Amino acid sequence: MSNKVYLTNEGFLEIEEELNHLKEVKRPEIIKALKDARALGDLSENADYDAARDEQAKVEGRISELEKLLETAELIEKRNNDKVGLGSTVKILYDDEDDVEEYRIVGSKEADPSNNKISNESPLAKAIINAKIGDICVVESPNGSYNVKVLEIK
Fold this sequence. Notes:
Layout: E1 5-7, H1 9-39, H2 47-72, E2 73-75, E3 89-94, E4 99-106, E5 117-119, H3 123-128, E6 136-141, E7 144-153
Parallel strand pairs: 1-2, 4-5
Antiparallel strand pairs: 3-4, 3-7, 6-7
Helix pairs in contact: 1-2
């Protein structure tokens, strides 16, 4: 498994947006909560202070995680529509079910199956990467293997 983190431009922007929100909104809220809690006196038995410190630790941890993610991310640039690759939107036909589905192949940090964004590390994506229109691919999943046919690549 690769240590690279792949992101689409949209995913990169969503992470930047979350990071900015944490820095510009959440951090100042926590600082204010800490000041207010300190003003109440004894910090050793101050539940508000403890809660604000816990929240501060979570937010700072998330900020650090997002900054590292953005520093190490490799942006996915869609090159062509001849072969399935990272960033491709693909229509596939499930042979067993005569069911057509459309998926976008994204990096694992951006995967969202409920919105048809599948990770490049998923069994389906691994099976169809580098496939061309008309190719039938065997997907090896924990529940057994099945075939899919690539109908369209965007």
